[in-house]
Amino acid sequence: MARIYPKQLPKHVFDNPKLSSEVRVYERIRDKLPSDFTCYYSRSWHEADDHGAEFDGEADFIVAHAEYGLLFLEVKGGRVSCREADGQWLTEDRDGFKFKIKSPIAQARSSKYHFLKRLNENKRLGRRFLRVRHGAILPNSARPKRPLAPDAPLEIIAFGDDLENLDKWILRRMTEGGDPREKPLGLDGLRALEELLASHFELRAHVGFSLADDATTIERLTGEQAWILDSLEDNREMAISGGAGSGKTVLAIEKAIRCAAEGRRTLLTCFNAPLANHLHDVCQGNELLVVASFHSLCRSLAIKEGIVLPSNAGQALFDTHLPEALVEAIGNNPNLGFDTILVDEGQDFRDSWLNALRLAVRDIDEGRFYVFYDDNQRLFSPEDGFISALPKSSIALTRNLRNTKRIHELMSKWYEGRRSTAAGPEGEVIGLLECRKSEMAMERVNERIAQLLRSGQAKPGQIAVLTGSGSTSMAAPEKIAGVPTCQSDKIHPDHIVFDTVRRFKGLSRPCVFLVGIEELTDSELIYVATSRANVLLEMAGTPEDIARMMQNTVDIH
């Protein structure tokens, strides 16, 4: 049995009565030729000449053998004839209808010259003088007694009489006659032919289209969450949990804006300064809405009330002195308090800080206090007593709306809280940029980003490069792929963000590249790192570090 491409004919070929003759020939070649023969069915081609004229064609069958060379065959069904007046070839079906057809000999000859030219362009073969033949098969026509045309002698055409022994006819056609200069196709020729006619390829997706389509889907899904805010109307205090990408921050922003619009003095706060800057930019234009990181809020109110803070308190300044200054400032001037307080990324707060914030609510009976938190993350505070004591939202945020399914699959491997499901688009596969040494990771990322920018697939403002190291002071490049960089608390729309995973916590970008992954050893930090990308996530590092980060995730390249 010959090796044949495709191994099975598609259903649409079997179902097309016009291709029934080709199906018969396919089955005869497959079943009768020995295994050292290879056959390709229905191979289309295209070429242009030096003047710009374009030509298309198709080889019905290409038979190849390492020793005997190549045979190009064209199949014409029905009863074939040729008009004497103009040399037009015709075929007549069983119902007596005639159709114009191209000369099968001319078609086979054109395919032969095209593919021979393509093979001669293969440097591995050189300009080998290959043994190549062409011919035609007319399975519904009986063999005549004279040649059909000057270019169609009977010996290069197989008729219905020859089908039963088609293997012998093909062998005879490939071996009879020839030029002494002809060389065998060889095993290297067979490989070159397979690459030309049957090689598999998989193109890298154009990220630009994915970014646009997936971002639109994610934006729509996130907007659908707003109805959950109605469930908060009758609850003065509540803890709302959800994993990364579940829309916690979007809900916190929307609730804060609504409360301010109702005439309530509202505070939206978080631990992370870069996230607070982002929230401030989003919420501009609301006079009754104050947006600030927790410690900057404490400091600003302390200054307003003239409270002196210790100058050399170290970490105690943040852990104790600033929160206490907040309580003192509001105690001295209740007008500095708030009607509604919303805490985003509440898992980062110490219990004492949350207690200080609750004391900033002006009216205990009418005030509102909401904490949005991720029950998997405890990067900055191991405490959870305060949040645990709050009434829990009856509606858990269990759908990941921000990330694609492929990103969700990876980040979920590092998630230990309440499980969520991916509602976003399928997305791009996780990009793996392997390098021999971790020090080369930034170079690989630079090359990849340059390619995305050069091809117009991404814009600088869509990209963030995050490092697993604790500080960017020594490693932060001024430019990446020729584009200026910025940190996450000073984001510029035309710059590429370069920052640590910790500082970028709570933020996201359509495209995120991870470097310094050898320092990402804590599962919660890996969870944060892998969940920052909305659409495209790629990581650079040694094969060992990448394998550890991927945790055997499938469908990667």
Topology at a glance:
Layout lengths: L2 E3 L5 H4 L5 H13 L4 E12 L5 E12 L3 E7 L3 E4 L6 E4 L5 E4 L2 H17 L11 E7 L18 E3 L6 H10 L10 H13 L8 H17 L13 E5 L6 H14 L4 E5 L2 H10 L6 E5 H11 L10 H18 L7 E4 L7 H8 L9 E6 L11 H5 L9 E2 L4 H8 L8 E2 L8 E4 L6 H14 L8 E5 L11 E2 L2 E4 L9 E5 L8 E7 L7 H8 L2 E9 L1 H8 L7
Parallel strand pairs: 1-2, 4-8, 8-9, 10-14, 11-12, 11-13, 13-14, 15-16, 17-23, 18-21, 18-22, 20-21, 22-23
Antiparallel strand pairs: 2-3, 3-4, 5-6, 6-7, 19-20
Helix pairs in contact: 9-10, 10-11, 13-15
Strand order of the largest sheet: 17-23-22-18-21-20-19
What proportion of the residues is helical, as a percent range?
25-40%
Tally of helical segments: 16
Low-confidence stretches: 552-557
Let me know the average pLDDT.
87
What is the terminal separation in angstroms? 36 Å
Estimate the strand proportion. 15-25%
Rg over C-alpha atoms, rounded to the nearest angstrom = 36 Å
Number of strands: 23
Number of domains: 3
Biggest sheet record: 7 strands, mixed
Shape: elongated
Quickly give the structural class.
Answer: alpha/beta
